[in-house]
Amino acid sequence: MTDAKKVEDKPKGPLGKIKEFSEDKEEQLAILSTFVRLGILIWSGGILTLNYVTIPGWEQDKIDPTFIASVFTGVTATFGIQAGGKKKNGDSGGGANISKKDMEMLIEKATQAAPTQTIKLEVPTVKITS
Q1: pLDDT: is 31 or 12 the higher one?
Q2: Mean per-residue pLDDT for 39-58?
Q3: N or C: fewer beta carbons within 10 Å in the chain?
Q4: Would you say residue 128 lies in a domain?
C-alpha cells in the first residue's frame, strides 16, 4: 500500500469534508459560520423550550430567559428572520421603513393642519398649613 491510499482510507472529520466540498477559504468559513450559527440557534431554542415545557420526573429550574431570548433573536436575525413579523393590518410595526421625504411631508401637513396647540391643565388647590 502506498501512503496516498492510506490517507484516502482514513475517515475525514467535519472540517475535512468542508475542505473537500470547497477549495475557496472564504466559502469554507461561510459554511463553518453557518453551522456555528445553526448550533447556537438550536441550543438557545432548546433552552427556551425547556424553560416553558414540563418534563415528567424531571425537576425544572426556572431561569431568566432574557439573555437566551436575545441570543435566539440575534441569531435568527443573521438568517434574515424578524421575530416580530407583520401585524394584522399589514403594518410591519417599525418606523424605520419611512423615507426622509415622506417624513418631511408628514411634518409639513401636520404643521398646516394644527399650527398651534393649546394645553389646559387643571390642578387641584393645595392648602399648606403650618
Answers
A1: 31
A2: 89
A3: C
A4: no
Examine residue 116 and state whether it is found in any structural domain, yes or no: no
Grid coordinates of 31? 459554511
Q: Which residue has the cell 421575530?
A: 83
- 20 inside domain: yes
pLDDT at 57 over 70: yes
- List CB contacts of 62: < 8 A, sequence separation 6 or more: 51
Q: Which residue type, as a one-letter code, is found at position 119?
A: I
3-class secondary structure per residue, 1-45: CCHHHHHHHCCCCHHHHHHHHCCCHHHHHHHHHHHHHHHHHHHHH
pLDDT tens readout for residues 76-130: 988 888 766 555 555 555 556 788 888 888 878 777 766 666 778 888 888 888 7
Q: Is residue 107, in this structure, part of any structural domain at all? A: no
**Residue-range definition of the domain harbouring residue 15:** 11-81
- Give the pLDDT score at 29: 84
What whole-number distance in Å separates Cα of residue 49 and Cα of residue 69? 11
- Would you give the DSSP letter of residue 116? -
Residues 44, 68: contact at Cβ < 8 Å?
A: yes
